[in-house]
Amino acid sequence: MVLPSALAVLVFVYGFIAVTLYVSFSNWSKLVPDYTFIGATNYLRVFQNPRFLITMRNLGVFTGLFVGGSLILGFLLAVLLDRRIKAEGLFRTIYLYPLALSFIVTGVVWRWLLNPGSPQMGSTGINLLLEKMGLGFLKTGWYTDPRIGIIAVAVAAVWQMSGYVMAMYLAGLRGIPEELREAARVDGASELQIYRYVVLPLLRPITFGALIVLGHISLKIYDLVVAMTGPGPGYSCDVPAYFMWELTFRANRFGQGAVIACILLFGVSLLILPYLRYSLRREAKI
Amino acid sequence: MQKVCWLLAVLVAVGLLGWAQAGTSLVLEKPASLADVSLTVFGDSAYAPAIMRATNSKALVDHSFARISRLDEILPAGAKLWVPDATWAKAFLAVWDPNRVEDLFGGGKLVVGSWWTTGGEAEGLEALFDLYRSRYPDVLIVNATVAGGAGFVFKAVVKPRIIAGDPPDTFQLHAGLEVEGYSPEIYLRPLDDLYTIFGWDKVLPSDLLDMIRYKGHYWGVPVNIHRSNVLWYNKEIFARYDLTPPTSWDEFFAICETLKKAGVIPVIIGNAGGWEVAHLFEDILAGVLSPDEYRGLWTGETPWTHPGVARALEILKRIMEYANVDYPAHTWDTALDYFVVDKGAMHIMGDWAMGWFMAKQIDYKVGWAPVPGTKGVFVALSDTFAFPKRAANPINVLSWLEVCGSKEGQIAFNMRKGSIPARTDITPEEKAQFNPYLQSCMEDWARDAIVPSVMHGAAAPESWVVDFKDAINLFLVTKDVASTQAALMAAAQAALGK
Amino acid sequence: MKTWLFRGLLYLTLVIFAVYYLLPLYVLVITSLKSFEEVNVYKMWLPPKKLSFESFKRALFSEWGYQGLANNFKNSVMMVIPAAVFSSFLGSINGYIFTHWSFPGVNIVFILILFGMFIPYQSILIPLVQVLRFLGLFGTIPGLIITHVIYGIPITTLIFRNYYSTIPKELIEAAKIDGASFVGIYRRVILPLSLPGFAVVLIWQFTSIWNDFLFGVTIALNPDIQPVTVALNNLAGSYFVEWNVQIAGALLVAMPTLMVYLILGKYFMRGLLAGALRG
């Protein structure tokens, strides 16, 4: 019964991955497919392109901030909401609704919000709010500043997805039997210690699950960048998926585009395999 | 002989009625075959299939016309035929594949791919559609447009389709080397025969024809011309500070200094699209180098180590110092908000900016001049429509190209789009219908030296355009002239070495 | 005394965060209610001087040469509902298999299916179009549905596998002893317990398929069958954007998914509580 799914995935995923892998070694650089094997030339060209290295660095920064930020914020909100709040449903909905939006909508609105304004026209967006609250020193150029760039994009992404993390952790927290916490309290542990030694370890499976979902969104991040910033000054907001798109469909460098896809997949496999080994070993124990 | 006279008489009588459509109607006195009719009307029986197709198309909309099912049919007396005009008939024969019998029956669709989705562009496209529908009402037009500047998204949609053998019937293509990215020898139909038949090779300027020609053939029919090197300035600010539009870069920077001291942003720039500053750079290059030297950059005759390139980069660096600091946050159009509130004075952009000024209703305070150094130089780009080999409805495409290349089509389209017709046979009365900027643009088009724009697909293939753009965007941050010049040189070598 | 302070701070923190989440919505709504002349990025916080629903009207209905969104909503619905339902069912079946049936290599197959989630879709557009053409599905809504179902299999499988791993093995064993077949166990034991899992999966798939743009624009070139996200993109001009119309359109497109979260959100939570998203 799993056969139809497996077959479909085999063709549509692995068949295509194999094709992409082969194309990355081929000479395909015009619209007409050209499958002549040219070894690792495309890989060399891609790595020598300064824009590629910038996008990989951006991806690293973005992933760290997005995944880390979402996890921390989501956990914090879950902890706060777990305390028998009135109107919990309302707060939950408020934190959760950005999930319903597409990255394109998120990108459009955050492009406005993080527009720093200018000396001549005055500040706008978040900078304006910071000014009015007397926190003017926190103003930055956001995505117009090449040193910050992708961090601005991460702020928007965290806004969108942290609600999902919150929902997961809230469910997880509710699943922890109160007796465990009581027992710890009886043993003299403080609330903080309870969180560190009882709660967090029990939530580890959720953390890993969130890591997988957030990680896969992060690696493929594209819509948000297109809608919000474009490549940004000095490519400070550029990401591999965007660069791959330009290489493939504008510059017709299909071989080089395929290289980026393969590199992303390789990176993924480095992360996912240890996780899966861990998860399966855990289940074997149970 | 008598039969001929009768036919001719009817032709003349009814011909006057049919001038708006591409042909005339004809009622048969006596039974005749299509070959006979073709022989009588055109002096050559070979046009029979054209007549069959034209009549069948008419018959789908107007049932008084005969419906012909076979090419060799003997048609009865009283059968009403639609005889297309000679040029269309010739073009039909050139395009029609005799194995495709289905093409003789009219109707079908016309899937038009483009990235013109709103505003003047969409209106212009719709005007072309209207003209087409009035001539060929039997065809269903499918407007397969996809938004995204410069076809950013559209290209990713159309290219897989072309590769898979299922292209739209016709699609938008910039004139020039952009066509290389479509491997035209494999996927597109060369249009040289149509250029001769419809006389486009006589009525389009030779510089444009040179631009469209790739590997010895024409691959698209141009509908318009846009100009890249325009300096737009705020007339009110200039009046206030007693300024006149600069003709050289020294004058330009003098104006910048004056404005900066007065607290006005001298140059408005928006680079969020990633291409706007590269566009500015191409205009600088076109002024610093002579037209021939500039063209030579793209053919390999002028090396990128030419001192003019370094000088252009220095100029660009200096311009950025007078620009609004938030330029990465804006696309060119949102940056023009400075212009609207009279806080910003000058903006270098192609002439589609006029459309924006008019939509915001501030065109009364907009002045224009050639980018400093480019007086007498017209950096041109043009939108054309291509003819994929595997188009599903080739005869409908032929009719579409006819409409695009026709004078009425070009006037109708350009008046709404905000560009100028590519044809040179526009009469002064017709020109007077266009807005003042476009009229002056048409004059310049007729006299200036024409050089191809690189950012808009004319001068270089897209892979080179992307490299060029990437080098300039990095330059904005590194400000390093030497390494950028080296990068531009490497890009040229990569593209030309192929 | 201390608890009052504590609770007060708690609510304050929650409200501050709520503001962070709601600010963008505020900007979106007031911008959509402005006319094009009033739209200005420097005045984004100011409510409209003149309330104008013109942008919604223009987003929904025929504009110059370009049809509005109204027709495309129907297309999106026709695409999303079958795709979400089918991919959920497939995920459920797969999840059941991977949890309670072992055969050689079961874990490997699961890993392989999961790995498929990570492929960047841009890189497989060309072979995808070719395969769909080969199957005669290119340019059709069924083609879009099948694409979404296939690429939804990894995530739905993951969710259901995690969910079903909380079902006690004893229940399954009991059914097996009773002589139930593979399908029988699924029908009698698994399916009745799956409701919370389906809640999570259906909501998640509905949202991500509804919001998809890439597959929609690549596979459905004919405007008659384009989903609403593709039509939304076309509201932007290629040279300049009318932000009020664009944002009004974006809000309209987001309505269905927002409704889903607002109304069905508690089922989503219940599904999570029941273990649908554990590691």
Chain pair forming the biggest interface: A-C, 92 and 83 residues
Low-confidence segments of chain C: none
Let me know the average pLDDT of chain A. Answer: 85
Helix content of chain C: 55-70%
Radius of gyration of chain A: 23 Å
Number of strands of chain A: 0
Total DSSP helices of chain C: 12
Oligomer: heterotrimer
- Secondary-structure-based class of chain C equals mainly alpha
Run of helices and strands of chain C: HHHHHHHHHHHH
Q: Summarize the main sheet of chain C.
A: none
- Fraction in beta strands of chain A: under 5%
The CA-CA distance between the termini of chain C, in Å, is 40 Å
Please report which band the strand proportion of chain C falls in: under 5%, 5-15%, 15-25%, 25-35%, 35-45% or over 45%. under 5%
Keywords:
heterotrimer; A: 286 residues; mainly alpha; 13 helices; 0% strand; C: 279 residues; 69% helix
Summarize the structure.
The complex is a heterotrimer of chains A (286), B (498) and C (279). Chain A has 286 residues and is mainly α. Chain A has helices at residues 3-24, 41-48, 50-81, 88-96, 103-113, 125-132, 150-174, 178-186, 191-202, 204-219, 223-228, 240-250, 254-285.
What does this structure look like?
The complex is a heterotrimer of chains A (286), B (498) and C (279). By secondary structure, chain A is mostly helical. Chain A has 13 helices and no strands. In chain A, helix 3 (50-81) packs parallel to helix 7, helix 5 (103-113) packs across helix 7 and helix 8 (178-186) packs antiparallel against helix 9 (191-202). Chain A is flat and about 70 Å long. The two termini of chain A are 26 Å apart. The relative contact order of chain A is 0.15. The model of chain A has no long low-confidence stretch (mean pLDDT 85). Chain B has 498 residues and is of the alpha/beta class. Chain B is 48% helix and 14% strand. Chain B contains 24 helices and 18 strands. In chain B, the strands form six sheets. Chain B has a five-stranded mixed beta sheet with strand order 6-5-7-17-10, with helices on one face. In chain B, strands 13-14-12-15 form a four-stranded mixed beta sheet. In chain B, helix 5 (119-135) links the parallel strand 5 (109-114) and strand 6 (140-145). Chain C is mainly alpha-helical. Chain C is 69% helix and 0% strand. Chain C contains twelve helices and no strands. In chain C, helix 9 packs antiparallel against helix 12 (243-273). The two termini of chain C are 40 Å apart. The B-C interface holds B 111, 113, 115-119, 121-123, 125-126, 129, 142-151, 153, 156-157, 159-161, 163-166, 168, 331, 333-334, 337, 352, 355-356, 359-360 and C 36-37, 40-42, 63-66, 122, 125-126, 128-130, 133, 138-139, 217-218, 221-224, 230, 233-242.
